[in-house]
Each structure stands twice: as structure tokens, then as C-alpha cells.
Specification:
The protein is an alpha/beta fold. It contains seven helices and 15 strands. Strand 8 and strand 9 form a beta hairpin. The longest helix is centred in the middle third of the chain and has 18 residues.
Length: 237
């Protein structure tokens, strides 16, 4: 990924937290630090003079919060929220956040979030993104074993005694149970978000407290699965 260089800023009212993020940025080959700010007002003024690809943004700040800053920006860069509070996670993704990192920030967690931003940048600028992996499972359909690549699988849906597979290229139905596939699919990439749905975490575009959106399709999110979803998305590679 050395061909990508994202221009970024850090916004946090804590000088210690800014210092830790700045160090991680300077150690990353695909990031260029343009500026750092301790409040949203300075950030708004600074963005008038600088074109930015990515903001590492705190939420709770004096005068204007991170959310209020974004509300005032006509053209929003990619956003990675970095905060000590977990209760803003659902609201953060309403702002199309790339990721939501909980303080203290580890290097591994930081790099995972940056990788997401790089891939989104490539998609936006039509730069080819290599396939994530070649992992697959075999699904018995019409008396034959069908190979299903996991990076192409969006979600599976329970339909009575059948299970519907929704992939990037096609949909098909097999006679099986959700439990059998829940046990086969890697739990770091797939999550049972509802009694009738198992979703590919990498395919989630946005979500709120009731729904998950994948390729403009809204899927229900069970109330007792909300926290599991937030934790899974925070830990995803």
C-alpha cells in the first residue's frame, strides 16, 4: 500500500492523547500528518487552508463536540473517531465513520482502522484493491457441492427449513439450518445479528440501533445483538 498517502489531522483537546496518535501517524508509511488541533473551532479554520483525506477525531471537546464539528463541514473527509467513551458508537456510524477506536489506542487497532480508510480511498479513486482472501466453504446445492468464497458472501438468511445465500454475483437457496453455517463461518468475519441473518462484517456499510445496511439493503438487527456488533466491528481486521 505504499502508493497511497493520506493527508490527515488529529483533533483532541488532550495533548497527551494527540501525542500518542501523532506518533502512530508518523510511524505509518501511508499517512502524512498535516496538522493537529485541540478544539473544533481551530479545526474549522484550519480546514479552510488545507485539503485533508482523513481526520482522527475526538468527540467530547469544549465549545463544539466532534459531531458538531462534522455538522458544520460542507465537505467531510474520512473520519476515524478516537474516544474514551463507548456510548457514541452507534451515533458515530450515522456520520459514515470509517471506524470507532476506544482509548487507549493500540498500534494494531490503529493500523486496522487506517487499512479501512486506505481501502475506501482506493475504491473512491478507482484504485484496484486485491481480494482480501481466498477462504471458502462448500455448500451442498442440487446434490452438488458449491464453492462459496467468503469475501464474496454478503449475508445468509433463514427461510424456514432453507437458507438463502446472498453473494456479490448471485443468490441461491439450500436446504440447511442457520446453526450449521454459523459453526462453519469464521466468527471474526461473520456475525449472527438476528435469528434470521448472519452477515459478513466487512460488507456492512452503515448501521443504527435497529438495522444493518449492506449494499443498500436494510437487514434487521436484534436488540440483544447490538453490543456484539459494536465489539465485532471494533475488532475486525
Amino acid at each position: 500500500m505504499e502508493e497511497i498517502l493520506l493527508k490527515c489531522i488529529v483533533v483532541d483537546d488532550s495533548s497527551l492523547q494527540r501525542l500518542s496518535i501523532v506518533k502512530l501517524i508518523r510511524d505509518h508509511a501511508n499517512l502524512k500528518l498535516v496538522a493537529e488541533y485541540n478544539n473544533a473551532i481551530e479545526t474549522k479554520n484550519g480546514l479552510l487552508d488545507n485539503e485533508i483525506d482523513l481526520i482522527f477525531l475526538d468527540i467530547e471537546m469544549p465549545v463544539l463536540t466532534g459531531f458538531e464539528l462534522l455538522d458544520d463541514l460542507p465537505n467531510k473527509p474520512q473520519i476515524i473517531f478516537v474516544t474514551g467513551k463507548t456510548q457514541y458508537a452507534f451515533k458515530a456510524f450515522d456520520y459514515d465513520a470509517v471506524d470507532y477506536i476506544h482509548k487507549p489506542v493500540t498500534k494494531e487497532r490503529f493500523n486496522n482502522a487506517v487499512n479501512k480508510a486506505i481501502n475506501l480511498y482506493k475504491l473512491k479513486h478507482q484504485i484496484a484493491v486485491p481480494p482480501e482472501d481466498d477462504d471458502y466453504i462448500f455448500v451442498k446445492s442440487n446434490l452438488k457441492n458449491r464453492k462459496v468464497f467468503l469475501n464474496k458472501l454478503k449475508y445468509i438468511q433463514a427461510l424456514g427449513d432453507y437458507v438463502k445465500f446472498v453473494t456479490e454475483k448471485e443468490n441461491f437457496v439450500v436446504l440447511a439450518t442457520m446453526k450449521s453455517f454459523e459453526e462453519q463461518l469464521p466468527n471474526d468475519k461473520f456475525l449472527r445479528t438476528h435469528k434470521s441473518y448472519i452477515v459478513n462484517l466487512d460488507k456492512i456499510e452503515r448501521y443504527n440501533s435497529k438495522n444493518i445496511e449492506i449494499d443498500k439493503q436494510k437487514l434487521p438487527l436484534s436488540r440483544h445483538k447490538k453490543n456484539n456488533l459494536v465489539e465485532a466491528l471494533s475488532a475486525i481486521q
